[in-house]
From TrEMBL:
The keyword Transferase applies. It comes from Streptomyces ficellus. This is Gamma-glutamylcyclotransferase. The lineage of its organism: Bacteria, Bacillati, Actinomycetota, Actinomycetes, Kitasatosporales. CDD domains: GGCT_like. Gene3D superfamilies: Gamma-glutamyl cyclotransferase-like (3.10.490.10).
Amino acid sequence: MSELPFFVYGTLRPGEYNHDRFLRGRTATEEPALLAGALLYDGPGYPYLLRGAGCVTGDLVSAAPGHYEELVALLDLLEDGYDREVCDAVRTGDGATVRAWVYVATPAVRPGAAITGGDWLGHRPPPRRPGRPGSPLPQPRSGPPLPRTRPGSPLPGGPRTP
């Protein structure tokens, strides 16, 4: 199969924390897109997609030259427990239909709270930056650096967070 782009709909979207961890520097293009026939749910703290009568807002990301196999392996690890399926997403810029990969929650996942409108970025509160009052992100600390992965975690930067 050719190198399909990925339709991402949650924490892998540009500006989100998993985009910075897994996609930054590995993509050639990132374009807004829609996926019909899908519904989005809150995990909580991360979204997951199920097939259904709705539309999900996301982005089509294509791998930079030489990064496709690495990207597939990283995203398959991150999305462990989800099925990678082929879908037909629509680029919002020009209306073109693009065949892409999407990660779909398995039937064993019990539906959580539906994300009305199908847009994770419009659903969750905006991310806060470290150092601001009330920031949920870790503050700088003194002392020796901490390890970047926890024992048993195959992912760079820590445990799996879809």
